[in-house]
Amino acid sequence: ENVLTQSPAIMSASLGEKVTMSCRASSSVNYMYWYQQKSDASPKLWIYYTSNLAPGVPARFSGSGSGNSYSLTISSMEGEDAATYYCQQFTSSPLTFGAGTKLELK
Amino acid sequence: QVQLKQSGPGLVQPSQSLSITCTVSGFSLTSYGVHWVRQSPGKGLEWLGVIWSGGSTDYNAAFISRLSISKDNSKSQVFFKMNSLQADDTAIYYCARNGYYIDYWGQGTTLTVSS
Asked: FRET label pair with A97: which of A50, B14, B41, B98, CA 20 to 30 Å apart?
């Protein structure tokens, strides 16, 4: 199966700080998807087709990457961005998720 | 609006089976697939399987021997059944809609496997 490795596992950022998190796939994928999850809530689609923001996602978020390496960037950290972010692929079965990057407000 | 509402038990004894119904609204099961994903502290998010709009299914090979997914389009319901449950199946189980990708998730069913 295609293993997705997210780094860092935990990170903290101050308000206004730029944030970048990584997702590396053990095999190349066509697209990467990102989900945001807050405590006691279901995951929410955040970024699809590698770089497209889901409806309602603030423009300070962006996604990029290709092949085995992908990233999610926040241009300026806001308090509401504190959450866990998961990457996901379905280029090959089984569909797999990364272990998540927990983003905290410093 | 798009909604996926899950119903099912919260506690199951070891070796028993789990059945969850995912009732959808705001879209048709003849146009969208539905995935099942579980989440546990030890294993994170695990994909279990999917039933596609046409009714075919794909399962994670790790669960194929004890997993079944079916649906009733007319009732807008998807049925999930997993057999031979053990303690490490304790998790939150989600159904989630698939158009070209997973976009909406149900509220989750918290399952504890314990005697």
From this structure: B14
